[in-house]
Design brief:
Layout: E1 2-7, E2 13-18, H1 21-43, H2 53-64, E3 66-68, E4 78-80, E5 86-92, E6 99-100, E7 109-114, E8 124-130, H3 132-136, E9 139-141, E10 146-147, H4 148-153, E11 159-160, H5 162-168, E12 176-179
Parallel strand pairs: 5-7
Antiparallel strand pairs: 1-2, 3-4, 4-5, 6-11, 7-8, 8-12, 9-10
Helix pairs in contact: 1-2
Organism: Ureaplasma urealyticum
Protein name: Bsp6I family type II restriction endonuclease
Keywords: Endonuclease, Hydrolase, Nuclease
Length: 186
């Protein structure tokens, strides 16, 4: 991993982390260790750990020619090198996620990384591009008619399942699939 200076769409400059094939090998090792740890946790009656943020964000950077901001650029997790667009990467390793967003959370692009596209974690990761309107106009409280945007305006942290509310309901197709075990798709 190296650091790189990158310009955002608004012209501001941030320093971020870049990843290469050597880093992918480290990610593969982490993936195997994460699977082992989750198996041990479950054997004790616990639940598995979700995907570590650096893992999903580094994988996104490798797949989409991006730089990880590491907290230096608003609520952006990554920045696309070619366009300067700020990206939020959400992920889950279970079939029914509960994804939360900050009350001031913003993005130019939103992606979801599904680490269990076949109902279990098996090394495949499918990336979905999520459209802004599908999020901001999503009704989260039907009784009050509150949308995602409404809850943010109230200073609340909107929470919902991206998989069921958007990906499955809109029958979205992944824009990229990666096999962590073989490296296929990178």
């Amino acid at each position: 991993m190296k650091q790189e200076t990158i310009k955002l769409k608004d012209g501001s400059i941030v320093i971020g982390d870049t990843f290469d094939k050597n880093d992918f090998e480290i990610l593969r090792e982490i993936f195997k260790e994460w699977l082992i740890m989750n198996k041990k946790l479950k054997s004790l009656g616990g639940r598995g750990l979700n995907v570590p943020d650096v893992f999903s964000e580094a994988l996104f950077c490798l797949a989409f020619n991006a730089v990880r901001t590491n907290g230096t650029a608003y609520s952006y997790d990554c920045v696309i090198r070619d366009t300067g667009e700020g990206v939020q990467v959400k992920s889950a390793s279970i079939p029914n996620d509960c994804t939360s967003f900050g009350s001031t959370s913003t993005w130019d692009l939103l992606y979801f990384a599904d680490f269990a596209p076949n109902g279990k974690v098996d090394g495949l990761v499918k990336f979905y591009k999520i459209e802004d309107d599908d999020v901001y106009n999503l009704v989260l409280n039907a009784k009050k008619g509150e949308t995602f945007k409404d809850q943010q305006a109230q200073g609340r942290r909107p929470r919902f399942s991206i998989q069921s509310a958007i990906i499955r309901s809109k029958r979205l197709l992944p824009i990229k699939t990666i096999n962590i075990i073989t490296g296929e798709g990178l």
